[in-house]
Amino acid sequence: MSEKDFLAQRFEESRPQLSAVGYRMLGSLAEAEDAVQEAWLRLSRTDVTEVANLGGWLTTVVGRICLDMLRSRSTRREDPLPDDDGYIRLPDPIVSSPDGLDPEQEILLADSVGIALLVVLETLAPDERLAFVLHDMFGVPFDEIAPVLSRTLASTRQLASRARRRVQDVSPAPEPDPGRQRMVVDAFLAASRGGDFEALVAVLHPDVVARSDGGALRPSLVRRGAVVVASQAIRYARFAEVARPALINGTPGAVAMAHGRPLAIMAFTIDAGRITALDFLTDPDRLALLDLSVLDG
Question: Of 81, 94, 98, 106, which cross-links 245 as Cys (Cβ 3.0–4.6 Å)?
Answer without folding.
Answer: 98
